[in-house]
Amino acid sequence: MTRPTFVRARRPEHKQQRREAILDAARRLALESGVRNVTLGGVAADVGLAKSNVVRYFGTREEIYLELLTEAGRDWHDAVVGRLRQTTRPGDVVTVLAETLADRPLFCDLLGQLSQHLEHNVSLTAARAFKETALQLAGGLGQAIAQAHPGLTDDEAVELTHLAAWLAGCLYAASRPSPAVAELYQQEPRLAALCPPFLPTLHRALAALTAGLPTLRDRSA
Fold it and tell me: What's the whole-model pTM score?
């Protein structure tokens, strides 16, 4: 791997170059070893900067990964909207949501780390920026889903979007056990039922939610 050559970050383009290098390093390390195993020191070492320089651009490790989660969320939004424009059957909504999430393991890993880790040790400014973008993206996805699936209201479609993201985060972690647990599953196949296959489990759960949400309208009124 060739590290970027930095000049003194006085001009905006130089500062942006460092931000992008930090994000690239954090992304690469997360793909290699998982988000939870990456430290701020590891990111700094990988990009060739001191930790004190990294925190000038991102206050904490968690803020780096919130930025990457925002980036990944935009990418997922665009992928879902693009595919839904080509669909003709309401049932395709579930397939599109499940497959686009399965195609984005880093996004799912970040979603799984969000509530327990990434939303901690961040500034109010970083948290607000992340939440505002997440709300905007969910609204856009909800509109696209409601258009593709007339059986869902706009609110139900937005709720389905949130549920898809939460389930993907939980299932991603559950479907990737630790080495010790993976060995246990090999030794005791009957216990492997506790390790759900990601895509089919997510697809089935989203299908059930999509079918069930409209039935709850009268009860929530």
Answer: 0.90
